[in-house]
Amino acid sequence: MLSKIVQDALNKQVQMEAESSQAYLAMASWCEIQPGLEGVTQFFYKQSDEERQHMLKLIRFINERGGMGIVPPLDQPMVTFPSLKKLFEEFLKHELKVSSSINELVDLALREKDYATHNFLQWYVNEQMEEERVARTLNDKLELIGDDRSGLYLFDRDIMNYRGKEEDE
Ligand code: OFO
To answer: What average pLDDT does this structure show over 45-49?
Structure first.
């Protein structure tokens, strides 16, 4: 059975995953109306779907452990971006925020001696490591590319290759 404090913290994470899903959906939609960003568009639509899965996984875990997963209200995310570079910076910033929130949750689970939750959260710890890696790689690549149009063409063409294999699971 979940303690109230762990349940509330897990529900806060539900909200954060839902916000991630919305944020990446907005990024996908913005990219879709820019010329030549088909790959990046697909990347963020997929990213948005995954974040929804992360939210669902949490809700179901909370419910299975005798709590109640709460579907959260959501603020509108950033919907326009001054540049693709800025968009990817936001992506990395967001992932770093999520990672630190997961770390705090892990810490809380330990303090509360909730080992089942601690165990469950390890999946998120690994997932965040992978997502941070992908976000950093993509930011580094964009930095290298600068204003080079052919570089950007290849970036868009190859973006799906930077994703980890767990995306297909
Ligand atoms: Fe939910 O995986 Fe990153 O944010």
So the answer is: 98
